[in-house]
Design a protein that fits this description.
alpha+beta, Rossmann fold, D-amino Acid Aminotransferase, Chain A, domain 1, 5-stranded antiparallel beta sheet
Length: about 425
């Protein structure tokens, strides 16, 4: 079978890497890919936003299954486009992708379905949002979210009312996230620990994958602005099998049942585990990034079998098998991320890092030019270490990070420290 992976980040490199291991896969294409995906796939210079060109390529090349990485083409209806042409594709149709495409839609659906989540207010007018916040306690923390797709950056954590008012100004007045901020959600800020749970879904069939814990803030000790994720680890010792079952039965199942169309694809559930139990922070309708980079290396199944089962409606006959090993991913980012950052810098040390045992270097924001790998994004590399303990996995990841270098490279030194210290 020929497989097409759509996207260009670290998540897509992990998908390419895992799918290429299937004995049933003859060739993997990645559109548009990056400087690392071409090690296991053939990169195809088609933008993720050019749905017609992607469908035409899949038809012309006889692609047996297309796997969509990023959220934007899913929200834009790539699955509808492919299905209309009789092409097999893994992902939700546009009507189901609204779970990620609109924070308001997602929160309102959770409320109707009785899914545990934080309280919230919706505003379409900045003045009304400011007036509501002004009536709230000055020292109350909030989360202010742009309603639409903001590439993972439209969520602002606010410790005080003043910070929340500034967030409203950034999103609605300054249009920092474009039209995604025409409507906002102001949520109560939940306390606890965060967990990301991915689940393969096919109608009412749900197959949870291994949980992961992400580090969103740019700085060590969880300081600074939110990012797309600076690293993570899997499994999550505190997140028990009972909590996975709770999430499947009390969160995912009622959410899928409340949708107007069947959900076929992967549902990413961002949870805050509070003193009162798990509460949903967000839904994404695709594989997480960088969660995929720690989950897939631990998956012992053939990923193609599971994705095809979801598309074919036979997912209920499958279970997921997991390695007992631990995985830790450290994100290496460009200096200045998540704000302004430079591109086009030569990356040194990649060959040495790739040669280390129990290390996988997933490329995220890279490109190849005249035989050299250059930076081409904010999050540049995702370095995953594997080990029989978290301490061993952390050591492998940072051993590889320490041999990689480019001007301005930045990363956190405390990824997975909390579970290493608890071992």
């Amino acid at each position: 079978m020929k497989v097409l992976v759509i996207g260009s980040g670290g998540r897509e490199h992990a998908l390419v890497w895992k799918l290429a291991q299937s004995p049933r896969v003859d060739k993997v294409y990645c559109a548009p890919g990056n400087g690392g995906t071409n090690r296991q796939a053939e990169n195809v210079a088609i933008s993720v936003s050019d749905l017609d060109a992607l469908a035409a390529f899949a038809a012309r090349e006889g692609i047996g299954l297309t796997v969509v990485g990023p959220e934007a083409p899913l929200v834009d209806g790539i699955v509808d486009c492919f299905q209309a042409r009789g092409l097999r594709i893994f992902g939700p149709v546009a009507a189901a992708a609204l779970l990620e495409g609109s924070k308001v839609f997602s929160k309102e659906l959770m409320t109707r379905a009785g899914v545990p989540t934080g309280g919230y207010q919706v505003f379409t007018d900045a003045g009304a949002a400011r007036a509501w916040l002004t009536a709230q306690p000055a020292d109350h923390p909030w989360v202010v979210k742009a309603d639409g797709n903001a590439a993972g950056k439209g969520v602002l954590m606010c410790d005080t009312r003043t910070e929340a008012l500034r967030a409203v100004q950034r999103i609605m007045d300054a249009h920092e996230f474009g039209t995604a901020g025409d409507r906002i959600v102001i949520e109560e800020r939940l306390e606890g620990y965060e967990v990301s749970l991915l689940a393969l879904c096919s109608g009412s069939d749900i197959l949870p994958l291994a949980p992961a814990q992400d580090y969103k803030r740019i700085g060590e000790g969880d300081t600074g602005p939110n990012t797309g994720g600076m690293g993570n680890y899997s499994p999550v010792p505190d997140f028990s099998p009972e909590l996975i079952t709770f999430t499947r039965d009390r969160v995912i199942a009622p959410t899928l049942a409340a949708l107007s169309v069947p959900f076929i694809g992967v549902l990413f559930v961002g949870l805050m585990v509070t003193a009162d139990g798990p509460r949903v922070l967000e839904f994404n309708v695709r594989f997480g990034d960088p969660e995929t980079q720690v989950v897939l290396p631990r998956l012992e199944n053939d990923l193609l079998d599971l994705l095809e089962a979801a598309v074919d409606g036979t997912l209920g006959a499958h279970t997921a098998a997991w390695s007992s090993r631990k995985a830790v991913t450290v994100v290496c980012a460009a200096g200045g991320y998540p704000d302004q950052y430079a591109k086009g810098t030569v990356i040194a040390g990649l060959a040495q890092a790739d040669g280390l045992s129990d290390v996988i270097v997933f490329h995220a924001g890279t490109r190849e030019e005249r035989g050299q790998i250059l930076t081409n994004g904010g999050r540049v590399l995702n370095v995953t270490g594997l080990g029989d303990s978290f301490a061993a996995a952390i050591d492998r990841a940072y051993l590889a990070v320490d041999v990689i270098n480019w001007d301005g490279m930045t990363y956190r030194r405390d990824i997975a420290a909390r579970v290493r210290d608890a071992e």
